[in-house]
């Protein structure tokens, strides 16, 4: 019989453990300017020994020293307001409002004016979600309690586009609401704003929108109901034969369908737009020399507060106080050095990008050359992952627009003349070739291959098809337009 028990063993392993300071340094390196500013402001709140330098005009060394000494001679005094002090400010505010109203309108400042002003000043605009928008309509709909309950359940089942992705029978089973009540609620939901909401497919969505517009018997509605697959493939000749309509009528019907909203819930989606603030600007000065300017506008300039340094130098602190100050001084200096290192790394990477991609900065996307992060890392003298972190989520302003740093790192091909060509350059060439094609006789992928070959760019047809799809360009048969 086997005897079970515990046994002690020793095992030696190697692992990489990042110190907290190193993790903080990497975070600073990776953060774009706006996020970095937020992190620095948080550190300013946490570290009392750090202070922000004034961001006004740059002072000379003497002027700066004088202002620092003056600040040290006049320490801030804490001001304690009581209720009576605030009542004075309130009376002053009321007097100013009344005076302003009398001077600008010649009429007395009435309580109604005050109410309107407060409503205007205190009102906040808040985006309404799709569900909130529909629930408000459901509350006002002429339905009984059971149907209203089904409406609320359906509203919660919609996807972001506004489609009802589950069947009526499944919803009835899941919600334990009678099938016919759910079906009636679906019909009611389809009458809500935005038009097309609560439908189960693109075809149903577009047809519903036309019916709500009173166009349920139009040619566009007939095409959607009876010839949807031909419409998707844009088979105009087949649509002419099936409907008996002329080319002009088919084209007008397609235009009418194209004006409809394929995703009714889209306008209620959360706004994911973000403000892009380039970390670097590259421009050509009046002497045709290329200049690199780092964006320091959003990065606070920091220093260690001289008062605390003087306290430490006097030697009058106990051991605990001294340890506290030394720890925060080290933390503050590390933050300052990390920010400086970040800026230097970004500047050096930008300098090397400018050397390699000079033709891009001079002429545009068509001259973009292949470049890897490993190449820049070897030149700058850092690891490839450092380059990856340094350019992450950062943008560079160029004479041709604002581009992410990663835009300049791209694989490529060797052209027939021996020059390296970036895949972005090839995509740009494909887009230009298709833009100038005859809409009635669009070019095949093989024809595009042949035209690229004339430009000394030799790539396979499947590569052209891949790049065309990445550009969002339809295949040949779907690009064909009929007169």
What would your notes on this structure say?
The chain contains 23 helices and eight strands. It is α+β, with helices and mostly antiparallel strands. Among the domains are: 139 residues, no CATH class; 68 residues, Orthogonal Bundle (Arc Repressor Mutant, subunit A). Strands 3-2-5-6 form a four-stranded mixed beta sheet, covered by helices on one side. A two-stranded antiparallel ribbon has the order 1-4. Strand 2 and strand 3 form a beta hairpin. The longest helix is centred in the last third of the chain and has 38 residues. It is flat and about 95 Å long. GO terms for molecular function: DNA binding; DNA-binding transcription activator activity; nucleotidyltransferase activity; sigma factor activity. It comes from Coraliomargarita sinensis. Keywords: DNA-binding, DNA-directed RNA polymerase, Nucleotidyltransferase, Sigma factor, Transcription, Transcription regulation, Transferase.
Task: Please summarize what this structure is.
55% of the residues lie in helices and 6% in strands. It has 23 helices and eight strands.
Attribute tags:
483 residues, alpha+beta, Arc Repressor Mutant, subunit A, four-stranded mixed sheet, two-stranded antiparallel sheet, 23 helices, 8 strands, flat, RNA polymerase sigma-54 factor
